[in-house]
């Protein structure tokens, strides 16, 4: 049985979706005001492993992902570069789609964007206004945190000491503070810039970042989902805002499971523009490494542990992968002798068993890889005793687990 660590309850829980066969899952995509870095891809990769493993377990996965193409940072960046918002975000979106494909990240056929989910954002805000959970201030619309009694339940904040007097945060992101202790913006009233101004019953403007996930969920998945995931930084504010918006809108529980992946560090430090230590996939490929090397490196620590990128760590990790790939190659090139006795071995089921055991334990990819590698070494050692049938079963098992891992072949 698959268990997942649910941030909502701070515990590992057995996974069971609302619909027994189909899992509904929502994941944040990159904010495409800048190109995604390898830290972002670490998050997208653990999410990819989750999707692939759910499929391996026999579920159908209905997943939505959103590219944030309208928000404060993107607007500022486009202005800085002297290009249109569309030009900026389209360039970064195309780069993301190409790099995701190279890294074998499975994405839904249709990818939501903030700009394509405007009407559902408007519908949500209208209903929140009707319910008295949102209110107008000037041209903007805000969410009243005191109107949602469970506000902050994911991050576990106690809002009883928050000021009753209205403090309004009218930017999409609030740098430098862990919690802004106030009402958050849902709609930026503005009709001066046609590119980012949309007509709504409550005045022209644009949806804030804080309502965009909810808009994509409503448009693509419906009112309730099974899993909402992202990086650890999404727990405070962003995912609590999703809960506040969605649960006030529908009156139902939004997601049953919240998963959060730890961050990637570079030489022990957070990646940032000011440090000048941001690494992009192309920086890795320029040095002659392959996308599967990067994929494996970014998955080489359990998703809830920090991972440190250093040259030494990267090289050691991918050398290990290359050795295991050689074992796989040897197994696929093997031709058993004509009269090999039928082996009674159970290596093929062994591969699946060790893989599933580790993956069922909150997606322990690194352990799954190690256990499968040990099995592969043992198979190569006993190669002269393998029958053709057994070899076929082993190859099928390798292919099956590699549908999830995507690093062995
Ligand atoms: P952003 O483009 O900032 O919205 O980030 C897209 C996703 O990448 C979010 O789920 C973030 O939590 C995640 N993320 C951002 N920085 C890192 C990092 N250094 N390591 C892992 N994930 C990250």
Task: State the helix count.
Answer: 12
How many β-strand runs? Answer: 14
General form: elongated
Q: Which CATH class of the largest domain?
A: Alpha Beta
User: What amount of the residues lies in strands?
Assistant: 15-25%
Write down the CATH topology of the largest domain: Rossmann fold
**Under the CATH scheme, which architecture of the largest domain would be assigned?**
3-Layer(aba) Sandwich
What distance lies between the first and last C-alpha atoms, to the nearest angstrom? 27 Å
Radius of gyration: 24 Å
User: Could you name the CATH homologous superfamily of the largest domain?
Assistant: HUPs
How confident is the prediction overall: mean pLDDT? Answer: 94
Helix content: 40-55%
Q: Catalogue the ligands.
A: adenosine monophosphate
Largest sheet: 5 strands, parallel
Q: Give me the secondary-structure category.
A: alpha/beta
Order of helices and strands: EEEHEHHEHEEEEEHEHEEHHEHHHH
Give start-end ranges of low-pLDDT stretches: none
Instruction: Work out the count of structural domains.
Output: 2
- Widest β-sheet, arrangement of strands: 5-4-3-11-12
Structural descriptors:
409 residues, 43% helix, five-stranded parallel β-sheet, binds adenosine monophosphate, Rossmann fold, alpha/beta, 14 strands
């Amino acid at each position: 049985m698959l268990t997942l660590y649910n941030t909502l309850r701070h515990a590992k829980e057995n996974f069971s979706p609302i619909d027994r066969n189909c899992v509904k899952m929502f994941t944040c995509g990159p904010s495409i005001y800048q190109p995604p870095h390898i830290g972002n891809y670490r998050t997208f990769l653990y999410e990819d492993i989750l999707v692939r493993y759910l499929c391996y377990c026999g579920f159908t996965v209905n997943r939505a992902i959103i590219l944030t193409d309208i928000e404060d940072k993107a607007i500022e960046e486009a202005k800085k570069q002297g290009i249109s918002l569309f030009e900026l975000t389209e360039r970064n979106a195309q780069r993301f789609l190409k790099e995701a494909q190279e890294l074998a990240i499975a994405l839904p056929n249709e990818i939501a964007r903030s700009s394509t989910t405007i009407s559902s954002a408007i519908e949500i805000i209208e209903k929140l206004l009707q319910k008295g959970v949102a209110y107008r201030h000037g041209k903007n619309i805000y969410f009243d945190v005191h109107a949602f009694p469970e506000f902050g339940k994911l991050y576990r904040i106690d809002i009883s000491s928050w000021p009753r007097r209205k403090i309004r945060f009218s930017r999409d992101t609030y740098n430098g503070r862990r919690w802004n202790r106030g009402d958050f913006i849902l709609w930026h009233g503005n009709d001066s810039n046609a590119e980012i101004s949309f007509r709504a019953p409550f005045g022209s403007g644009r949806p804030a970042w804080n309502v965009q996930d909810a808009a994509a969920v409503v448009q693509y998945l419906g009112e309730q989902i099974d899993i909402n995931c992202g990086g650890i930084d999404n727990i405070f504010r962003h995912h609590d805002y999703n809960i506040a918006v969605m649960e006030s809108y529908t009156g139902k529980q939004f997601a049953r499971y919240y998963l959060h992946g730890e961050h990637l560090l570079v030489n022990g430090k957070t990646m940032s523009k000011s440090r000048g230590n941001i690494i992009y996939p192309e920086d890795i490929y320029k040095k002659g490494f392959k996308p599967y090397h990067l994929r494996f490196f970014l998955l080489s620590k359990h998703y809830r542990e920090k991972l440190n990128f250093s040259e030494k760590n990267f090289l050691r990790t991918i050398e290990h992968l290359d050795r295991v790939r050689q074992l796989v190659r040897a197994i696929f090139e093997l031709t058993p002798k004509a009269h090999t006795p039928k082996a009674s071995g159970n290596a093929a089921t062994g591969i699946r068993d060790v893989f599933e055991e580790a993956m069922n334990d909150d997606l322990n990819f690194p352990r799954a890889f190690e256990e499968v590698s040990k099995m592969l070494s043992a198979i190569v050692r006993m190669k002269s005793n393998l029958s053709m049938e057994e070899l076929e079963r082993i190859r099928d098992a390798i292919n099956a687990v590699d549908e999830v891992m995507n690093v062995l072949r």
